[in-house]
Design brief:
Largest sheet: 4 strands, antiparallel
Strand order of the largest sheet: 1-2-3-4
Shape: elongated
Radius of gyration: 23 Å
Helix content: 40-55%
Distance between the termini: 65 Å
Mean pLDDT: 84
Strand content: 5-15%
Structural class: alpha+beta
Low-confidence stretches: 215-220
């Protein structure tokens, strides 16, 4: 009888643990951490450093940049508020904040892509981040003491979760393909800029390892999402990362490009 009672207690504990993990607050906190990890970018210190003539960007543009930079942390802020007592956001205020956030997010996404012909990854980055932040507010809206999230809010959470997972899963995908392609040969991974090797894992996230100038080329510039250089036994080869195909593609004739690609990093 004692053995049976212990087993029954164990079976009772498992559903209780699952129920606890599936509580809305716990799920939302997990979601907030996921969004932060997938979207948060290092602060660009160059905006606060005077250029060669001693000028810095206008405060308006700095403010826009900071607003965009802090956006991935807003779900985490809301999650923190739910842990200290926030139960719901009145529907009227939630809808108003959501409208303003969506409008601002769309405007910033369009503004960022005007000079780069809107790369697909750039658009995906801006739109899904906007959805993630807006849904974080809409998911806690309600008028009767409890949040009553709409289908739109749930759909927004789902879409941004998938996008965030894609961004994070790009890291092991890049590392795995790089090792497979190199097959023991020295290699390096870099952004398409002179002497810009990737030194940290967060630089390989899907929403970090891409160029905002994809699709644009002139007589002096070519832009790639990201590059890998491999010193194979038969010679050096250069590969371009494709976020759409989720793979490295061989750059057929890199020496013919006006903007060099062999000087981005040194294989080791």
């Amino acid at each position: 009888m004692k053995l049976r009672s212990k087993r029954s207690d164990q079976y009772q504990l498992k559903p209780a643990l699952i129920d606890r993990l599936l509580k809305p607050k716990v799920l939302f906190c997990t979601y907030a951490v996921l969004i932060f990890a997938a979207y948060m970018q290092p602060l660009d210190q160059s905006l606060f450093t005077p250029n060669l003539v001693g000028n810095t960007p206008p405060p308006f543009f700095v403010g826009l940049y900071l607003a965009t930079w802090v956006a991935p942390s807003l779900p985490a802020l809301i999650a923190l508020l739910t842990q200290v007592g926030l139960r719901q956001i009145p529907s009227v205020f939630a809808k108003l904040f959501t409208f303003l956030l969506v409008a601002a997010g769309l405007c910033l996404t369009l503004a960022a892509g005007v000079f780069s012909l809107f790369s697909d990854t750039q658009i995906l980055h801006g739109l899904t981040l906007t959805i993630a932040v807006a849904s974080s507010i809409l998911i806690w809206s309600g008028d009767d003491g409890k949040p009553r999230p709409s289908r739109v809010a749930k759909l927004g959470i789902s879409v941004s979760t998938i996008a965030a997972l894609w961004s994070l899963m790009t890291v092991p995908m890049i590392l795995g393909q790089a090792r497979f392609i190199a097959d023991g040969s020295p290699y390096c991974i870099a952004h398409h800029s002179r002497n810009s090797p990737v030194e940290t894992l967060h630089e390989l996230r899907g929403f970090s390892f891409y160029t905002e100038k994809t699709g644009y080329k002139s007589t002096s510039e070519w832009f790639f999402h990201g590059l890998m250089i491999v010193d194979h036994l038969e010679g050096q080869k250069i590969y371009n990362w494709s976020p759409r195909r989720w793979r490295f593609d061989l750059v057929a004739r890199p020496n013919l490009l006006f903007e060099p690609v062999s000087n981005v990093c040194v294989p080791n």
